[in-house]
């Protein structure tokens, strides 16, 4: 049996943990740069507010109904997610983090410790609520696809319950008949439209089709696996994942990450070379820190610059260039030099840019990099110790406490920073912004 635990309106729920007065009030959270709605409370949904609606268009409605609005606060959300996942590890030895607000638990082997599966699901839900303050829905079923489907049905239950367990064939059949085909995990909008042309409106209709038909019409072996999952036969792997500090999924054990990326949109369009250099240097420092955390080194450095994608132009909205290093490294100084050189290739005087980013590829294990005949060992002497010392200081005293001057000395007030006029405090990860009662 698998359990899927999904946090309800996760970003809004994180804000409500530290603002209990908002418990029954409509609340929304905005995307980067306060662009559009990315999380809504049930009360905000009842007002007709849609996911992805531009903030500047719905602002009159928000003000009219007194909706509480927050800028996105990913530092807080990432830490709250880590706390939720930590609680879940107490209920199963195998936890697969699917996203920042969802995780699968493998309940195999818990037959004797948790004979009443529904009671166990409610215990999971209550424990997360009590320890972290985040409300969740729990779906339990023989396969991950059915667990996802059960979780979706749990969202329709009263707030005090929101746990659905599918154990028998009749329970699974009833759940399949209640699920529209577009809500089945793995059926996208395009396949849903195609299946409706054949008269398939629900998950039960799809499960009733012959396997050979599904193989022809639903992407071959991928569709067959989905079909078997709907019949209660597990076909999807269970890969334990983890999240990094930014809430991004790390590769499962045994698999190496292929790239490390750090990109951001600017709060205001920028054209000055000095400002762009500071932004790119900040991104390079952060990406280099991630490399060292995962014991990796990179020998390809890509820098990208983007302009307003909606503005009429003759060329592409995003330009990039890649430099190859003579030897893979995770040394911030070496990576900064490469990123700076790449930026000078891209920057054009008078051009207004709205975003920038740095990507490191060609990753190798930090202790097993391919050496170069023309780079002597003395060039790298003491550098690993220096990087380790910098990382230790930043881990102990806060991110960015020790950094390169190229990244700026007042990064919080940098002109290229995105808009976040309504961001809440970093209640759990900053001494200066610690929650006060």
TrEMBL record:
The alphabetical list of record keywords is: DNA damage, DNA repair, SOS mutagenesis, SOS response
| Single GO cellular component term | cytosol
- Is DNA repair there in the keyword field? yes
What does the similarity note say? Belongs to the DNA polymerase type-Y family.
The terms under GO molecular function for this entry are: damaged DNA binding; DNA-directed DNA polymerase activity
Locate the UmuC domain: which residues? 2-188
Protein's UniProt keywords contain DNA repair: yes
UniProt cross-references to PROSITE patterns, sorted A to Z:
UMUC (PS50173)
What the entry lists under InterPro entries is as follows:
DNA/RNA_pol_sf (IPR043502), DNA_pol_Y-fam_lit_finger_sf (IPR036775), DNA_pol_Y-fam_little_finger (IPR017961), DNA_polymerase-Y (IPR050116), DUF4113 (IPR025188), PolY_HhH_motif (IPR024728), Rev_trsase/Diguanyl_cyclase (IPR043128), UmuC (IPR001126)
- Note the SUPFAM superfamilies from the entry: DNA/RNA polymerases (SSF56672), Lesion bypass DNA polymerase (Y-family), little finger domain (SSF100879)
One protein family per Pfam: DUF4113
* GO-annotated biological processes: DNA repair; error-prone translesion synthesis; SOS response
Superkingdom, according to UniProt? Bacteria
Q: What is this protein called?
A: Y-family DNA polymerase
